Amino acid sequence: MVVDPKVQLIVSLIFLFGLALLMLRLVQPRKATKPVESVIQNMMPTEGGVEMNQKLLEAALEGSDYSRYLVLKQLKDITESRVMLRLHLSREEAEALMDDERWLRNVLRDDTLARVVAHDYRGNPHGQRERMVLGDVLDSFDVKFPELLSKVEALG
Fold first, then answer.
1. What is d(CA 39, CA 25) in angstroms, rounded to the nearest whole number?
2. How far apart are CA 54 and CA 86, in angstroms?
3. Cβ–Cβ < 8 Å for 84, 91
4. At how many degrees (to 10) do helices 65-87 and 128-139 cross?
5. C-beta pairs of 127-131 under 8 Å, 24+ apart in sequence
6. SS3 sequence, the chain?
7. Domain-by-domain residue ranges, the chain?
8. CA distance 119 to 70
9. What are phi and psi of 5, to 5 degrees?
10. Span 11-70, pLDDT tens digits
């Protein structure tokens, strides 16, 4: 081996640098190579949101209480968005005001729509509270839902 301390230091540093590069290479994750066709197929949804909403609405109109409940929840979300846009409210302000049924009756000018929007959809459609608040809407869904939807569309 070399006796000169400067040469020993330089050789040791080169050796440590080489080991550091080797360790980085071992730790670095490898890129998975996927065929282009499988990536394109994964990006293409098998069933889009429109088709899912259509099936949900069809099931609701056919009499499924759970589907009716989910459709009313979507109607609530859409109404909340429209009120936010119309009144220039932030998300936090709108969510705070959506619990106040009197304020909703004043803004929406419809008692049934105000009840649907103010309702907390965390239960199930067969619960006693849901039947008390939304029973008339759930029972006559095929008549009430188009009316409520046209009122929400008129908000925009």
1. 27
2. 27
3. yes
4. 90
5. 130/69
6. CCCCHHHHHHHHHHHHHHHHHHHHHHHCCCCCCCCHHHHHHHHCCCCCHHHHHHHHHHHHHHCCHHHHHHHHHHHHHHHHHHHHHHHCCCHHHHHHHCCCHHHHHHHHCCHHHHHHHHCCCCCCCCCHHHHHHHHHHHHCHHHHHHHHHHHHHHHC
7. 5-43, 49-155
8. 12
9. -65, -35
10. 999 999 999 999 988 888 776 655 544 444 454 455 667 888 888 888 888 888 888 888
Percent of the chain with pLDDT over 70: 85
Contact of 125 with 135, CB cutoff 8 Å? no
Look up residue 52 and give its two tokens.
């899912």
Whether the model clears a pTM of 0.85, i.e. scores above it, the answer is no
Residue type, 109: R
In angstroms, the CA 117 to CA 78 distance is: 10
Contact (CB, 8 A) for 99 and 114:
no
Q: How many residues does the chain have?
A: 156
